[in-house]
Amino acid sequence: xxxxxxxxxxxxxxxxxxxxxxxxxxxxxxxxxxxxxxxxxxxxxxxxxxxxxxxxxxxxxxxxxxxxxxxxxxxxxxxxxxxxxxxxxxxxxxxxxxxxxxxxxxxxxxxxxxxxx
Length: 117
Description:
single chain; 2 domains; extended; mainly alpha
């Protein structure tokens, strides 16, 4: 379990270093996730080491929302001031995310040669 956590945190750290070092507008954990994907693609045997630990982390993912909720309450005045803009961005980003997901699904389905019945 320690080696899996070390690998996960190291990939996140490297992603953070790349994002800050190159001043990219991409979050470090996203780059770390891409790095982890590359590692697992090149060395699939590592998946057996990472899977049990990541399953436990994902099972307890709801605990990670507590700091975000505290942050929202701490900045509640900003939320009240810009609620319309925030709501608009949330609706627009949700719609764009759903369209990207559907587009990706259709693309992969077509690439795999499966047509709707």
